[in-house]
Design brief:
Layout (H helix, E strand, L loop, with lengths): L1 E6 L15 E5 L4 E4 L6 H8 L9 E3 L5 H4 L2 H7 L4 E5 L6 E4 L4 E3 L13 E4 L3 E2 L4 E5 L14 E3 L14 E7 L2 E5 L7 H12 L5 E4 L4 E2 L4 E2 L2 H13 L4 E4 L5 H11 L3 E3 L5 E3 L1
Parallel strand pairs: 3-4, 4-5, 5-8, 13-14, 14-17, 17-18
Antiparallel strand pairs: 1-2, 1-19, 2-3, 6-7, 6-11, 9-10, 10-12, 12-13, 15-16
């Protein structure tokens, strides 16, 4: 399978825009897949520059209902008139970032309700065909990131911590190899990998995901102890290669690199991979 990063916080090409967000294009023998749509429509311009025709996408997935991943969704739906978009049932929750300085809505734009006929609402594990399996509800909170603490769901007049019931992950299998795609891994990349291995019966061959080890609202990385513990878990797993960026953060990436070496790589906008 071919993977092209359409949007990420950084870029590896002068003619490719970057922004805080994530969007990936995945191509297999059976499918042309869009995974997340970045914070706005810039990923569409990047796709054109990278030779990706988004009108030919036949299926799309939204990892979770934060606007740095779904901000460009309406633009995609206007461009592509047929691809269904798979997302969790809880995407219409009221999701906020709450800090001492601000309380800001970061969820789905209400205008997207006009496109509900294009959405497929998921729950649990759904095997769509021989290549695609979407799953949610990663068990446990092992090595849960404190960067999640500012992310809240408004329920009535209260703002309890987000449980990320709107998050889902995707397994893509082709020619005996499987890649795991996650947006921000808010449920914890270690927990998501456990779920993936339960579904797949083995470790995936590659992982493309943000690890959410950086809090952009507070401008700080997670403690070294947590990052190192995540690195040890990933090193012990049988995944051949991890590709990360977006919400992982530069400091955390550098620490993880010391533990994972060549098994860990960055995935800036404009980069491409073969699994």
């Amino acid at each position: 399978m071919k993977v092209i990063i359409l949007m990420e916080n950084n870029t590896c090409k002068e003619n490719i825009a970057c922004a805080h967000g994530l969007s990936m294009y995945i191509e297999t023998e059976q499918h042309k897949i869009l995974f997340d749509m970045g914070p706005d429509a810039q990923f569409i311009d990047n796709a054109k520059a990278l030779g990706v025709d988004l009108t030919q996408v036949d299926i799309a997935f939204l990892s979770h209902a934060h606007n740095d991943h779904c901000g460009g969704l309406e633009a995609f739906l206007k461009l592509n008139d047929h691809a269904k978009v798979y997302m969790q049932k809880a995407v219409w929750g009221q999701y906020y970032v709450v800090t001492p300085q601000k309380c800001a809505y970061i969820g789905m734009d209400a205008v997207l309700k006009n496109y509900e006929d294009r959405f497929v609402l998921c729950d649990g594990v759904q095997k769509l065909d021989g290549e695609l399996t979407v799953f949610s509800a990663a068990p446990g909170r092992e090595l849960w990131s404190g960067a999640n603490d500012t992310l809240r769901e408004k329920i009535g007049d209260d703002y309890p911590r987000d449980t990320f019931r709107h998050e889902q992950d995707l397994l893509v299998t082709e020619n005996g190899k499987t890649a795991l795609f996650a947006g921000c891994a808010h449920c914890g990349i270690v927990n998501i990998l456990k779920s993936a291995e339960n579904v797949l019966g083995r470790a995936p061959d590659a992982v493309f995901a943000g690890f959410h080890l950086y809090n952009p609202s507070l401008g700080r990385s997670e403690p070294d102890e947590l990052v190192d513990a995540v690195g040890e878990k990933l090193r012990a797993d049988r995944v051949a290669h991890y590709f990360t960026g977006h919400c992982t953060g530069k400091e955390a990436y550098a620490r993880l690199k010391t533990k994972l070496g060549d098994r860990l790589g960055e995935m800036p906008a404009g980069s491409d991979f073969t699994v």
